[in-house]
Amino acid sequence: MSELYNRFGSPLATLFVALVAAWLIGMVLAPNLMMIDYALRPNLPPAEIGGPRDVYSLDNITYLAGEASHRSIFLKTIWASGLVAFLTLIVCYPLAFWLAQNATRKQVAIVLLALTIPFWINEVLRTLAWYILLAFRGPLNAFLLSTGIIDQPVRWYGDPGVLAGMVYAYILFMLFPIYNSIESLEKSQIEAARDLGASTARIHARVVVPHAKAGIATGCVFTFMLAAGSYVAPALLGAPGSRWFTQIIYNWFFEGGDWNRGAAYALVLLVLCLCAVFLALKVARVDLTEVAK
């Protein structure tokens, strides 16, 4: 804080602090406090709000524990979000390593531009593009039929389609943190390990991954949280048997008209996701301040 005031002066630094505080209060703190308030109160007609029945309780939260179908969808959303983070890591790590250690500046610029340009388009339109690609008579089935890999069209909608759409949607959130971490690794360390007889797998396990673990953790945290809170991909690419927990929250708010129960479900999702993230960071031995960088 003192460095901020020394660099920009008191008036400008105070303005910056005030703007950040206003953003945190208005966009982060206030909505979450309202969600907690809604989650702990019953869904009542306007005339009864503030009356004797309008008391705080855990009824909306315990309702989830007693609803077997909702509980199973919730647990599926958590592990499937972890799977999305893992698949995105598998896709991004080799590319990030190549970009950071082997690619020329021109190659880095071309690849990053090619990856970034599609994200100038709205997320809904990008997901609809996947919807067309995975359609029963879409390009993917047409290609597989023409090459003889399959003998009849496959319905890709459901869990495979949702996973593919999410991996694509959040690839940049995984790629950039890992790329930035590996880029700071001196090539001489890799060369020294190779000169000492280390295999490629051992070099990555003992040199690259420990150096880039903060970037890997950051990418996994971002991807996991975004996947757990995603609505567009499950709604467009999913099937009746592949519902996401966010779809149930949406139904409570906009179809069931029960904002209190919807807020309770959203609160449970938020808390459990945060617990999963902190547990993963502890297992990976990565401090939260490293992720914040």
Structure description:
It comes from Limoniibacter endophyticus. It is found in: Cell membrane. It is a multi-pass membrane protein. This is Spermidine/putrescine ABC transporter permease. The chain crosses the membrane at residues 12-34, 78-99, 128-150, 162-179, 214-237, 262-284. The chain has helices spanning 2-8, 10-39, 59-66, 68-101, 105-116, 123-133, 139-147, 159-169, 171-183, 187-195, 200-228, 232-237, 245-254, 259-284, 288-292. It is built from 15 helices and no strands. The model has no long low-confidence stretch (mean pLDDT 87). It has a single domain (71-292), classed as Orthogonal Bundle (MetI-like fold), CATH 1.10.3720. The chain is globular. By secondary structure, it is mostly helical. The longest helix has 34 residues, at 68-101. α1 (2-8) packs across α2 (10-39) and α4 (68-101) crosses α8.
Q: Helicity range of the residues?
A: over 70%
Low-confidence stretches: none
Cα shape:
globular
**What characterizes the major β-sheet?**
none
- Could you say which structural class the secondary elements and strand pairing correspond to? mainly alpha
Number of helices: 15
Task: Kindly state the number of beta strands.
Answer: 0
